[in-house]
Every structure is written in C-alpha cells, then in structure tokens.
Amino acid sequence: MANTESSSNKRLAGKVAVVTGAGRGIGRAEAMLLAREGAKVVVNDLGGGPIGGGSDDRVAAKVVGEIRASGGEAVANYDNVATIEGGARIIQTATDSFGPLDILINNAGIVRPRIIYNMSESDWDDVIAVHMKGTFSTIRAAAMIFREHKSGVIVNTASESGLGHLGQSSYSAAKEGIVGFTRTIARDLGRFNVRCNAIRPRAATRLFDEDALKAMERTRAMLGDRGVPVPMPNPLDNKPEQVAALVVWLCTDAAANVNGRTFVVGGEMVGLYPEPEPIRTMIHEGGWDLDALDRSAPSQLTAGLRNEFLPRS
After folding, report:
1. What is the pTM of this model?
2. Residue 198 clears pLDDT 80, i.e. is over it
3. Does the annotation mark 117 as catalytic?
4. N or C: which end of the chain has fewer CB within 10 A?
C-alpha cells in the first residue's frame, strides 16, 4: 500500500537515517516513525538475544518489510555495533543505499544482570562493548560524513540505570558513560553544525522484565529524580512509541538549538535533566587536610546526607 501523504508534510523528507538495534522495542519504534516522517532508514540489528549471543537476519528484515509496506524506504543491516568494522559498515550501508547520512540513532544494547561479586569479565566486557564501543563505532564513522557536509544529528540512548541500579553495574557504567560521551561529542562536532543529545527512556522492552523494571523504579524512588519533578507511572504501561516521538523530534529542525543535553522520556512525560554541578562547596586557606575536613565537612559539606543502602533492621 503506497503512502499517499505529501512529502512536504513530512518533517524529515529526504533525510537519511541509521537506527542501531532497530529490530525490536524502542529502536523499531524509532525506525518506523522516522520512515513515516519521510526519512530513508537503515534498520540495523544483529538479531541476537537480550543478553547477547546469536544472530537472526529476520529481525531487521521484518522491520524493513513493515516500512516498505507502508510506503517508506528502508534497508537492513546485520552488523555488530561492538566492532569498529561493524560500525563503519553500518554507516556505509546508508551512504551506499541512500546517499550521505543525516541522522544517527544509537539504540543497540544488551544486559547481563549480575551482583558485582558474581560478575565475570565477559559479563562486563560484552555489555561495555555493545553500549559504549557500539556508540563510539558508529559515531566515529558518521562524524567524517557530518564534518564534510557540516550538518548532522545524533541521538544516543542512555538510561536511568546510570543513576544506580542494583545488579546492573556494567549496564549502569556503560549508560552513564554514554551521557559523558554525548556531552563531548556535542562539543567536538558542534562547530560543524552537528548536534548530539541523549535520552534516558522509560519503556517496557525485552531487555528488562517486570521484576527488573520494578527494581529500577525502587532505585529511582530512593535516589529521587535529581532535580526533575516528574511522575513515576508504572513502567510496564510505557510504550516504545512514546519514547520514539521525542527521539525523532530531536532530529528535526524544531530542535536545532538543542545540543549536548540529556532527556528522560516515558509514557505521557518528557523531562530535561540538569547538567551536573556542585551543590555545596567549602574553601580552606592552604588546602584541606584530614583534621580540617573532620572539623568542617560534617556541618558544611555532608550535613544531612545518609546512607540510603544500608541493610534495614
């Protein structure tokens, strides 16, 4: 069935986009919405399991079929984001199929939930490779195109797990690393008219089952929302399509002034995270030593702080 909507009504008509991990969940929703807004989309997905391992070309191919059936343009890519070669081939697929890249959405990910004393080296390495190196590998390749054409948009997928999530140290480290990486890429490429932002999505996907999502909610309740007064709906009610709307909006001209920022999005809510800054400071002439900290820190620097995670009696 052909899409009869005029291309002039589409926000991203003619743009070329890559979405990694686009075979399911949030990535699929992003790819579908990009296509509906007129973008030509590379649907990347290795087709592996939620904890990594395995591959299945049918996962990405199915989404491509859905986009084409709706009148959009899409091709599949099955490379692994966790290698430099894979990242480069993903971007090359876009340029070979449609022309110079305009939009890159990094969404691919896996989880290996383990309490730290049970976490193996491969549990750590594999999660860091997919999330952190995967985000690096595609941005590195895309940056060369963006710099040459002096335009481009990147949206990276972080997580509220980066604020602390029981049993997810590798995932938390990778996701919060992506936030810092995003801030630096915004500075590296901003002078070339390229913007890079990140999201912390709240949505039920295959990476997190009901128990994991509820654990994340409990952690967030203890930590607070870090200056972002937002509701905490049942995460199982949040749909990937509700996340995709903000991500795709960040790729449009309406968000041309937004760069290097981090958003939370889920359900009926979107929010902007504040940039980190010290909330208390102390000055001591000549610098600090232990005795001076003993005298001043409890009353000025650490007053009111408590260990939220001690065992409950």
Report:
1. 0.89
2. yes
3. no
4. C
